Amino acid sequence: MSNIKTNKKSQYLSEMRLGHEETLEQKVDLRVLSLGAGVQSSTVLFKVLHEEIAPVDIAIFADTGNEPQEVYEWVEYLKKEAEGKLDIITVVNDKNTGSIYDDILSETGWFAGIPVYTRSKVDNSNGMSRRQCTDRYKIQPILKEVRKILDVETLRGKCVEMVMGISSDEKQRLKRPPNKWQINCYPLAENEISRDECLHWMKHKDLPMPPRSACIICPYHNNKEWRRLKENYPEEFEKAIYFDEQLRSSKTSQFVQRMDSELFLHKSRTPLKDADLGAEEDFQYSLFDDECEGMCGV
After folding, report:
1. Has residue 294 been placed in a domain?
2. CA of 47: how far to CAs of 58, 77, 165, 181, 209, in Å?
3. I want to staple 298 with a disulfide (CB 3.0 to 4.6 A). Which of 36, 54, 101, 238 is the partner?
4. Among 288, 48, 298, which residue's Cα sits nearest to residue 173?
5. How many C-alpha atoms does 248 have within 13 Å on its Cβ side?
6. What is the rounded CA–CA span in Å between residue 58 and residue 196?
7. Band of pLDDT at residue 68, cut at 50, 70 and 90
C-alpha cells in the first residue's frame, strides 16, 4: 500500500505527502505549516509567501518557553513579514507554567521530561532519560490549536495537512503519521532542497539569516553550539548552567526527585560549567535521532 502522493498543483513545488491511503484521497479541511522558526521551516514560510509552495491556512509556532531570545525576535519578524498574507499563531503548553524550564524545576504540577544524560548512583553506568518534550511542548499544543480552529473535540474523520520544513539532508526524519486524519507534507525533501540550499535561497532573496531553533537547555547541543551560546549569549548560557546544577542539587524539583541517577546537560556527564567545550567530537547524539514527528528544531 503506497503512502506517498505528489501534489498535483503544477504551479507550486511538488510535495511528498505521507499518510494513510484513504486520507490522501480526502478533501483537505486545514493546511498547517508547523513553524519551528529555524532555517528550514522559515524557508518554507517564505516560499509560501513567494508563491513557490502551495498556500497554507495557518502557520503555528509552538513555544516551549525556553527558546533563545533571537528566536523570539525572529518569530516577531516573521509575523510582520507575513502580515496581511498569512496568520502566524504562537501556542504554548498551558498545563502548568507554559515553560519547560520552570515546569521541570517546579515542586508541583504537570511537567514533561527532557532527555538528559544520566549516570547511575548504583553502578556508575551511563544512560539517557526518556524524551517527552517534543510531544508535550510542540506536537500537543499544535494539535490543540488545530482542533480549536476546526471547532471540534476530535480530529477523527478530518483531513489536516501538516507542512514541515525537513530538508533533503534530513530524510531520516520523514514520517508517515500514526493518525488517520493527518497528512505530513514535505516540499523541501521532495525537491532535494538541502539546509545549505535553504540558506542560499534566503540570501538570494535578500532575506536575513534565520537563527538556530532549539531550547537553551537542550541536551543535544554539541560543543560548537554550547560555545556559541557561551560566547554570544552569556546570560542564556548562565541560565543553562543554573538549570544543569539544579539537575543534581534540587531538593524540590519533581523531575529530579523521580530520578535515581545523576543528571547532566552535557554529554560528557560533567557539570556544564566545567565541561570542555573545545573538545573535538567524533559523534554527537542528534536532536533528531529519536524524533518521532519531525516538529522539533526545524
Report:
1. no
2. 14, 16, 11, 25, 14
3. 36
4. 288
5. 18
6. 26
7. very high
- 239-245: long-range contacts at Cβ-Cβ below 8 A with a sequence spacing of 24 or more? 239/101, 240/216, 240/265, 240/272, 241/271, 241/272, 241/273, 243/101, 243/104, 243/105, 243/217, 244/217, 244/271, 244/272, 244/273, 245/271, 245/273
Q: What is the pLDDT of residues 215-234, one digit of tens each?
A: 999 999 999 999 999 999 99
C-alpha cell at 132: 517527552
Expressed in angstroms, the distance from the first to the final Cα of the chain is: 29
Question: Strand 160-163 and strand 182-186: pairing?
Answer: parallel
Q: How many domains does the chain have?
A: 1
Identify the DSSP state of 222.
-
Q: Rounded to two decimals, what is the model's pTM?
A: 0.89
pLDDT tens for 267-282 read: 999 999 999 998 866 4
| Domain presence at residue 282 | no
Residue 252 counted as domain residue: yes
What is the spatial order of strands in the sheet that 160-163 belongs to?
A: 4-6, 16-18, 182-186, 160-163, 30-34, 58-63, 88-92
* Residue span of the structural domain in which 76 resides: 4-274
CATH code, domain with 173: 3.40.50
